[in-house]
Amino acid sequence: MAKEFDLKELGTDVANINTTFESYKAANDERLAEIEAKGTADPLTEEKLAKIEDAMEASQKRLDDYELSQKRQHRTVVDAKGNEIDLDAKALKWAQTGARARGTQAIDFNADGMDAYKAAFDSYIRKDERTMSDDEVKALSVGVDVDGGYRVTPDMSGRIVSQVYESSPMRAYASVQMISSDALEGHFDLDEAGSEWVGETATRATTDTPEIGVWRIPVHELSAKPRATQKLLDDADINMEAWLAAKVAEKFARAETTAFITGDGVAKPRGFLTYPSGTTLPTQIERFDTGANGAFAATPNGGDILIDALYGLKAPYRANAVWFMNRATLKLTRKLKDSDGVYIWSPGIAAGQPASLMGYPTASFEDMPDPATDSLSIAVGDMRQAYQIVDRIGIRTLRDPYSAKPYVEFYTTKRVGGDVVNFEAMKLVEFTA
C-alpha cells in the first residue's frame, strides 16, 4: 500500500527548510571564515552546523519521499485516484495477455471468472494443488504461464509491481518496457548523415553515411522464497496474497535497484556506474573529476565541477536533467559554492517540488556510493533517455511444501533486465584528484 502523507506537515517541512537553510548558510560561512583565519573550524561551529543539517535532513527526507510518490502514481498498475474500472474488461484483458503468450485466444472471461480464479489461487496458497477440487483446478488453469506452469493472480502481480515501484526509485526516472520475449532490442544512432553545399551544376560527392549499432537487453531471473508454516496457512484469517506480495516486493525492489546502479551484467542487469570513462560511443560514459580524493576541491571552486558536468550534457538531455546521489553526498553538495561565492543548492519551494542544484532537481539514490577516493558518487542527466529497464510479462509462484518442512515455501520469480542505451544522456562525477 502506498505511503500516506500529511499535506499540512509537508507544508511545515517546506517552510522549515527554507528558513533553516538561511541559518545553515550563515553557519557554514562562519566555518569557512574560521578555516581561512585559523586553518581549522571551531568544534562548536561544526556542532551547530551539524544540528542544523540534521533538522533539514529530516524534513527533506519526507519531501523527497512525497515527490517520488507523486511521480510513481502514473507509473503503477494501481489506479490511485479512485477512478471506476470496468472489471469485466480488465479481467478479459488479463486473460487475453496470457492466452497470446500461449498461442491461444481468450474470448469469454469476465469478473466472475476472475473471482473464481482468485479464490482458487488462495486455495492453492493454503493447500497443495493435489487437494484442490476439480473446479478450483479448472479455474486456476486460466493463469498458467507457458514458461513454466506457475500460477499467480493478476491482483497479486499488480500489488507486487506497485510496491516495487514504491521502493525502487530507479523506475520513477528510467524508461520501463514490458515484453513477452526474453530480450528487448533496439538501435544506437551513433552518427549524423554527411552533407555539403554545392553549386547548381557542381558535382555531388558521396557524403558520410550515419552508423547504426544494435543493443540487446536480456531479462534475468530475480527470485524470492518467503515461507510460512502449514498451520499458519490453514488457520490464518489474514490475506495470504497480500502477505506474500509484500514479502516478495520488498526483496525484489532492493535487489533490482542495486543492480540497475552497480550490477555487473552477469545474470543480472548492468548498472550505469560500471561503464568505463570516456566519450567513445556506445561503450563509455564521460566522467568529470572533482580534483580531490574523496572530496570536492577547496573553496571557492569546489562547485565548479558540477557546472562542468551539467553543461557537458547536450541541450536536449540537459533540459530534463536530474542529479542522482545518496544523502551522504548531498550533504557535501549543500556546502558548495560556485566561483562567485553563491550556494548552488536550493531547497524546494513547495511540497512535491524537489530540492535543486543549479536549478535542476535532485533525486535520492541510496545505492549510489558514499564519497570516497575514486568513487562515482554523482550522476546527472536524462535517465529516461539513458537507461532502459525491461520487464518480462508475468510474476510466477511455485508452492513447495517439501523442501523446508514444516514450512511451505513460495518460490516466486520475476524476470527483469536493464542497461544503458544512450551514453550521451548521462555524465558521472568521480571523487578523484
Q: How do the strands and helices of this protein lay out in sequence?
A:
Elements: H1 7-38, H2 43-72, H3 87-102, H4 111-126, H5 134-140, H6 154-167, H7 170-173, E1 175-179, E2 183-189, E3 212-218, E4 220-224, E5 227-229, H8 230-235, H9 240-262, E6 287-289, E7 291-292, E8 295-296, H10 304-310, H11 315-318, E9 322-325, H12 327-334, E10 345-346, E11 356-357, E12 360-364, E13 375-381, H13 383-386, E14 387-400, E15 407-420, E16 426-431
Parallel strand pairs: 1-14, 6-16, 9-12
Antiparallel strand pairs: 2-3, 4-15, 5-15, 7-8, 9-13, 10-11, 11-12, 13-16, 14-15
Helix pairs in contact: 1-2, 3-4, 4-5, 6-9
Q: In the CATH hierarchy, what is the class of the domain at 81-191 and 209-326 and 365-433?
A: Alpha Beta
Q: What is the averaged pLDDT score? A: 82
The CATH architecture of the domain at 81-191 and 209-326 and 365-433: 2-Layer Sandwich
Overall, the morphology is globular
- Percent of residues in beta strands? 15-25%
- Helix count equals 13
What is the CATH topology descriptor of the domain at 81-191 and 209-326 and 365-433?
Answer: Major capsid protein gp5 fold
The arrangement of helices and strands along the chain is HHHHHHHEEEEEHHEEEHHEHEEEEHEEE
Structural class: alpha+beta
Strand order of the largest sheet: 6-16-13-9-12-11-10
E-strand count: 16
Instruction: Give the termini separation.
Output: 45 Å
CATH superfamily of the domain at 81-191 and 209-326 and 365-433: Major capsid protein gp5
CA gyration radius, whole angstroms: 26 Å
Percentage of helical residues?
25-40%
Biggest β-sheet strands, sense, barrel: 7 strands, mixed
Low-confidence runs: 73-80, 145-150
